[in-house]
Amino acid sequence: MDIENAKVQMRKGILEFCILKIISQGEVYASTMLSELTSAKIMVVEGTLYPLLTRLKNAGFLDYRWVESASGPPRKYYLLTEKGQEFLAEMSSTWDELQASVNQISNASPQA
C-alpha cells in the first residue's frame, strides 16, 4: 500500500464534513471553499468539489443562491439547509467521538 494513497483516502473520508463546516459559517462561494481547504492542507480540486456539492444539494443538505458579480458571471453561494445543519451536528458528534478514540489509541502506552 502506497503512503500517498493512504493519505488521500484519509482526507477524502473527512472532506464532506469539512465542506459542511465551512458552509456552516455563512454563505460561501466555491472558490472560497477551495482556498480554505487548501490552506488547511486538505487538497481538493474543482473536479472533486463540484460533484460533492451537487450530491449534498440533492440530499437536501445545501441550497444556493445566485449573486451578480461586477467582474464576471453571477456566482453561486452555498448555504446549509435546516436538514444540513442537523446532519452536520450529527457528523460533528461522530467526529468528536472518533477523534477521542483515535487519540486514545495513539497515546496509549505500548503493551509489554
Describe it:
- The chain is of the alpha+beta class and 112 residues long.
- The chain is 62% helix and 17% strand.
- It has helices spanning 3-24, 30-39, 46-58, 82-106, and strands at 28-29, 62-69, 72-80.
- Helix 1 (3-24) packs across helix 4 (82-106).
Question: Topology, pairings included?
Answer:
Elements: H1 3-24, E1 28-29, H2 30-39, H3 46-58, E2 62-69, E3 72-80, H4 82-106
Antiparallel strand pairs: 1-3, 2-3
Helix pairs in contact: 1-4
So what's the oligomer here?
single chain
The major beta sheet can be summarized as: 3 strands, antiparallel
- The number of distinct β-strands equals 3
> What sequence of helices (H) and strands (E) makes up the elements?
HEHHEEH
Biggest sheet: strand arrangement: 1-3-2
What is the compact description of this entry?
This protein is an alpha+beta fold and 112 residues long. It has 4 helices and 3 strands.
Essential attributes:
112 residues; alpha+beta; three-stranded antiparallel β-sheet; 62% helix
